[in-house]
Write the structure tokens for this entry.
Amino acid sequence: MSEKNNLKKYTRKRKFAQTPEPESATTAQTTNQTPIFVIQKHNASHLHWDLRLEIDGVLKSWAIPKEPPTTENIKRLAIQVEDHPLSYANFEGVIPEGNYGAGTVEIWDKGEISFEKIKDREILLEFFGNKLIGKYALINTNGKNWLFFKRKQ
Ligand code: MN
């Protein structure tokens, strides 16, 4: 995951007087609650899906240019982007023209996750969503580029 958890980039990219996105710039306290994921379908200049995983009090985030895989044997490029605040997991709405990520955001899937392994370049986890169900992997290939796929169950 290569970067420390922080929301400075998230805050720097946005004008909160203009965008309805949550302003929270603090990481959450660690809790004993089960971590969650969300995937937001983001119809910006290029349609993509934003995968976000709750890790260490923030939502670690990846942009996936094609629909996330719900079956095995499909590998998707996932490009790591800036950490988002946990409150972003509930966000749906329209980011106005002229703002970073302008376009519509809708929740495509959401639920709990369970991690098997979290390393700098490898995340193994299980999803308990409506569309994403079962064991998946995120494998770093180069820089910000990761591969996201469903594993053998
Ligand atoms: Mn996005």
The chain has a mean pLDDT of 93. The chain is about 5% helix and 50% strand.
